[in-house]
Amino acid sequence: MARHWFLESIVGDGAHVVYNITHLPFRVGRDPDNDLVVTARGLSRHHALLTADSHSGRIRLTDLNSTNGSFVGRQRVENSCLLNDNDIVHFGNAEFRIRVRVAEPPAARPTEGHTLVLPPGMALSEMFPENEAEFLDLLGGHGMSGAAQPIVEADSRCIFAYELLGRASHPLLPGSPLRLFKMASALDREVDLSVAFRRFGVAAIAPRLRGFPLFANTHPKETFSEDFFNALVCLRQEMPELDLVVEIHEAAVTESCRLRELAARFRDIGVRFAYDDFGAGQARLNELGEVPAHFVKFDMGLIHDLHLAGESKRRVVGDLVKLVRGLGSVPLAEGIENELEAEVCLAMGFQLFQGYLTGRPIPADQL
Known about the structure:
Elements: E1 4-10, E2 16-20, E3 26-29, E4 36-39, E5 48-52, E6 59-63, E7 70-72, E8 75-76, E9 80-83, E10 88-91, E11 94-101, E12 115-117, H1 132-139, E13 144-153, E14 159-168, H2 177-187, H3 190-205, E15 214-217, H4 226-238, E16 244-249, H5 256-269, E17 272-278, H6 285-290, E18 295-298, H7 300-303, H8 311-326, E19 330-334, H9 339-348, E20 352-354, E21 362-363
Parallel strand pairs: 3-4, 4-12, 14-15, 15-16, 16-17, 17-18, 18-19, 19-20
Antiparallel strand pairs: 1-2, 1-11, 3-5, 5-6, 6-9, 7-8, 7-10, 10-11, 13-14, 13-20, 13-21
Helix pairs in contact: 2-3
């Protein structure tokens, strides 16, 4: 089948606009005789030319000695270079993504004769995240990895449970979940990444840790969705022996009514839950009292250097631990890094520890 190339841009309202490359050569520039007219200060009258490369079947970009240059992957093009599907291309300050489909060409959103008007500005924009194609592959399971971090009993230091942690082993993507979620946020795919991490953890890690409760993270955007709950129902049916603890992020703990309904649904399918990052933002004491969780994970920001903290901070944290225990929840101190922190937390009444002192994350392939 024929290969159909097109350029994609993002306009001011966030919409993606498609410009089909219906013929080659295809000229880009500021003058109206170009195939794609880009009205912007940063473009030359005849800025760049796209031609077919018969040897590779790809498109070649040639810069036409433009004043402000053409860029591929934010690297300036000297003379010409071949383009790959999903490459990020800048003509001056105008950003596009080059795409190819082995199918009918996509329907282009109506534009004014293939004309794009850009606001003034010379800096290279970053509308399209770098390595987007690899990120989408990750969501499909390619390059997906993970780890499990022990959660121990505070007094005995015996392993009580493990937390499933998502990672990436793709050579072109960051391994850090924080950086991956930053990419996901730019693409509005945070929920998809959360689901992919959880799916990998349950499939690849859970079978190796039978007998231990497993804590699994969720993203605030998915907490109350039907898709999320239905996925849990399916998981319980497939793995009835799995002792799963769903971590609800502090940002989602905002409405007692919805939390009460969710807690009841969790109970019906045999899933426990924890409030994660407690104390990172607003303490949400009302929701904590109205809908007590099985576990409350105190944010590492409260725990770090707690042995050096003043009396007032220690009193506040200690009172919160007493409150949590009084509600029937189990308080867990996150981010324990040294024995002095551990001693203070144990004295305050924390029942579970998690941190580098008691166990670093173990990669999935080393479990």
